[in-house]
Amino acid sequence: MRTSGFAAVLSICACLPAAGQLPAGSVGAELMNAPGEVVYAAACANCHGPGGRGLPPSLVAFEEELPDFTDCDFAAREPDADWIAVAHEGGPVRGFSEMMPAFRGALTVEQLGRVMEYIRTLCIDPNWPRGELNLPRALLTEKAYPEDEWVVEVGADLADGGAVAGAYVYEQRFGPRSQIEIAVPYGWRRNGGGEEGGEAPAAEGAGHGLGDLVLAVKHALFHDLDAGTIVSVMGEVVLPKGDQDAGPGVPGTVLEAFMSAGQLLPGDAFLQAQAGAAVPLYEDAAPEGFGRILLGRTWTQGKWGRAWSPMLEVQAKRDFESEAETRVDLVPQVQVSLNTRQHVLANVGILVPVGARNGERPPARLLTYVLLDWFDGGFFEGW
Asked: Per the confidence metrics, is the pTM higher than 0.90?
């Protein structure tokens, strides 16, 4: 059974005696400044074993199988701060059982940090990007980190008769650095329609239905936690569903390729960028280049609480043909964690076109999504 990163934290400290019951001197001079491996050996190895693979359930008082800290597939996913939160504050701080006690009276945050440094050495494959590089998901800019997610996206023109469109997005990692993505748009429109985040306008007339199927593959080319940098390349194909009268779509296949990058900044700030091109494989359509850049920062309610990430995103698009207009949009937005476990997230923002296009100013557009990081549990877990 594969265990999520947060569930693993429950087991990290479940092997510790209850707060105030550690061996004499364990929080004194003997272990206060001890290396993480020494603290781990004194506090965790009785259950997790000296190599971090976990003792068999028959030898410990747990019904579930203990996690294997050498398994990079889960060990690399979560940032240290989330693991330490559960170890320090107990299970309820991230929506887990009260049977996981708080160990803030037994081990300090600094000690737990050293334990985490040691546990990180048990995954010996450096190909797996660390969870700290999994930055908040923007409304338009594709993030560089490969992820396991369900996302429901919705956008609506803030004008009479405007289009409402959405998409169901499924993302799944495979291997250390790669991800597949499947997106199925759905749309409603009256008397024509607006643009979906700057995409091609819907056909004239009223209607609703499924849009074009999008298939994509992402691969992280480079990641370096010390530098706070991750860079990925992604390619996708848009396959026309064949009926533009019922929903949003284009009359033929479109190929798209781009690069994405994420950069950690001081003070819990971050920068993300994306640049690429879309090439329609049908007549009377020009290739298009696009670029997006985003600056944001994450705040938490208290030290361990709900996360808020306000962001400002800028998008520019231009057809590869003479005298084409460059279309620019500003997208202020904020992402917030909805549940205690922080694996159900929402983002809401407004796409504001900058300047007129073909002599007219397009309407602003409300954009939002709800996201489930399904590797960390189901939608109704951790509230």
From this structure: no
- Give the integer Cα–Cα distance in Å for 95 and 339: 8
The answer to whether the CB of 142 falls within 8 A of the CB of 171 is: no
Opening angle at CA 194, ends 209 and 372, nearest 5 = 60
Token pair listed for 196? 């979906």
Q: Give pLDDT < 70 ranges for the chain.
A: 1-29, 60, 62-65, 97-103, 161, 189-207, 242-248
- Tokens, residue 181: 């993505």
- Please calculate the CA angle 263-265-269 and round it to the nearest 5 degrees: 105
Cβ within 8 Å of residue 307, ≥6 positions away: 298, 299, 300, 335, 336, 337, 342
| Number of neighbouring beta carbons within 10 Å of residue 190 | 15
Assess contact for 188 and 154: CB atoms under 8 A. no
Distance CA 69, CA 187 (A): 44
**What does the alpha-carbon distance between residue 282 and residue 244 come to, in Å, rounded to a whole number?**
15
Q: Which long-range contacts (CB under 8 A, 24 or more apart) does 277-284 make?
A: 277/320, 278/254, 279/254, 279/255, 280/250, 280/252, 280/253, 280/254, 281/252, 281/253, 281/254, 281/255, 282/250, 282/251, 282/252, 282/253
- Closest C-alpha among 265, 125, 274 to residue 198: 274
Side chain identity, residue 209: G
In this predicted structure, what is the pLDDT of residue 28? Answer: 44
pLDDT (tens digit per residue) in 192-248: 444 444 444 444 555 677 888 999 999 999 999 999 999 999 999 999 875 555 556
